Amino acid sequence: QVIWLNAQWIAARYPASQRAQYRAAARTLRIPYWDWSMNPTMPPEASQPTIYIKAPNGTISVPNPLYSYTFHPLPSVEDFPPIGSPSDFQAFSLRRCLEQHGIVAQRDGYPMARQHQD
């Protein structure tokens, strides 16, 4: 669903002369699937390290996500919510969200939005 929504957002950014075409394509977007047991030959789309995309501002090259994947580090204990009451989980979730957006500070172990300096 998130990929589909992003495709709609990107399609809306194309020049007006091309927008209807890209919006129609985005509405029918499907995730690629390869059943290696039915056809063990690697699809050509997965054998190229770089792909070229017709972006709203011209053609761009990007690393091919079907070619390789870099695994991220395993999560640590701090990446999981504490065991306890629902309020502990809510505070943890809020803190993680704010940290990801760079707007959190800690006070007595609880999240607190940073004050902006003007």
Walkthrough of the structure:
It is extended and about 50 Å long. It contains three helices and four strands; from the N terminus they run ααββαββ. α1 runs antiparallel to α2. With 118 residues, it is an alpha+beta fold. The chain has helices at residues 2-11, 16-27, 86-100; strands at 50-55, 58-63, 104-107, 110-113.
Uncertain spans, ≥5 residues at pLDDT below 50? 110-118
Report the end-to-end length measured between terminal Cα atoms: 39 Å
Chain-averaged pLDDT: 77
Order of helical and strand elements = HHEEHEE
CA radius of gyration is 21 Å
- What is the subunit organization of this protein? single chain
Strand runs, count? 4
Gross morphology is: extended
| Order of neighbouring strands in the sheet with most strands | 1-2
Structural class per helix/strand content?
A: alpha+beta
Helix content: 25-40%
How much of the polypeptide forms β-strand, as a percent range? Answer: 15-25%
Q: Count up the helices.
A: 3
Task: Tell me the major beta sheet.
Answer: 2 strands, antiparallel
List the helices and strands and how they pair.
Layout: H1 2-11, H2 16-27, E1 50-55, E2 58-63, H3 86-100, E3 104-107, E4 110-113
Antiparallel strand pairs: 1-2, 3-4
Helix pairs in contact: 1-2
State the main characteristics:
118 residues, alpha+beta, two-stranded antiparallel ribbon, two-stranded antiparallel sheet, 31% helix, disordered C terminus
